Here is the input.
Amino acid sequence: MSTDDNAAPGRAPQGGPVPGEGPVPPRPAYTPGSAQPRLNRPVHERYPQIRATSGYGDPRIRHTGPGPGAGSEQEPERSSKLTARLTLAITVVIGQLWGLTVVVNEWMRGNTGTAWWGAGFLCLSFLVVLGLWLLDPKDR
Here is the structure.
């Protein structure tokens, strides 16, 4: 039995056309352009508002972006407070995910007492985060 005999029906064996179908017609040559003549105009005619000097030579542009010092922290105390909050929030989220994993595992094993204590821990953890969020409302 040759490898050509194993070919799936309707598929061409390696190196030949599909039996029963004629040769594949060649693809038409690619010609750029559109059937709509208005789209075949040069770019500067289609979009007169775009000039070759758009950007650096455009008189309408007054400011090229943020000035010197942009991106540097203007209030380092606020930045450190936000970084500490973010670190605490990430730690709490990781702890809650771990706690949720433990609670689900205990629940599936049938240890419902331990699972309820774990659920209480998760609720308490959420309330601590909520309390910390309410602590400083002016910084939101």
In short: The two ends are 76 Å apart (CA to CA). The chain is about 45% helix and 0% strand. The chain has a mean pLDDT of 75. The helical segments are 43-46, 76-109, 112-135.
